[in-house]
Amino acid sequence: MDNLEHRAVIKFFVKKGLTPIEIFTEMKNVLDDNAPSYTTVKKWAAEFKHGHTSLQDNSRSGRPKTATTEEIMIKVHNIVLQDRRLKVSEIARDVGISDERVHHILTKELGMKKLFIKKKIIFHQDNARPHTSGLTMAKIAEFKFNLLPQPAYSPDLAPSDFHLFPKLKKFLRGCRFSSDDELIAAVNVYFEDLQEKDFRDGITGLEHRWMNCIEVQGDYVEK
User: Fold this and answer.
1) Which superkingdom heads the taxonomic lineage of this protein's source (predicted)?
2) pLDDT tens string 65-121
């Protein structure tokens, strides 16, 4: 299969609602060494998800566009609605305009100023030695994270352990990767596809576990 045929298959799977890692796994199982790389699958899945319809590469030359047309504003708006976690530079790359123009469209034309409000980050981790080492604590201080205190002997209170990683293991179950880069890319896809509800459920579960921890005076919490 050539590149255009690969893209046609990716487009078909995107329309079926498959994630990039699922598309890559399907194509790898059928095409083996002739399958496109995971990076290629991820790139074109994102293109088709954001409204790209052609199987051809976008022809872009010269400096990025600076004019703000209704078509460009609609495209920027649709991209943001699909994924509010995208960076301005990523939106600019997808649309083919400058970062400054994207920022102008979002803040002035679409009134999405809240997208750029910096929020305070509360960081929570358990008391494992790598997490409490001087190097780790210095990095947390550098990022200006507010560290949530963790009771001793309660590793089960970390949302990553009881909520995030179990779902990640389920997401990767049955997948085979030929390199570390493919595995890293798959993990990135998992985190990129998480919705607001996924994080909210983890925080809700943390509140429940904290209450149980208080009731048992800091003893181990199973559920």
Assistant:
1) Eukaryota
2) 445 577 888 888 888 777 766 778 878 888 888 888 888 888 877 776 555 545 577
What is the spatial distance between Cα 11 and Cα 46, in angstroms, rounded to a whole number? 10
- Asked whether the predicted pLDDT for residue 223 surpasses 70, the reply is no
The 3-class secondary structure across the chain, one letter per residue, is CCHHHHHHHHHHHHHHCCCHHHHHHHHHHHHHHHCCCHHHHHHHHHHHHCCCCCCCCCCCCCCCECCCCHHHHHHHHHHHHHCCCCCHHHHHHHHCECHHHHHHHHHHHCCCHHHHCCCCCEECCCCCHHHHCHHHHHHHHHCCCEECCCCCCCHHHCHHHHHHHHHHHHHHCCCCCCCHHHHHHHHHHHHHCCCHHHHHHHHHHHHHHHHHHHHCCCCCCCC
Task: Looking at the structure, give the CATH architecture of the domain made up of residues 122-216.
Answer: 2-Layer Sandwich (3.30)
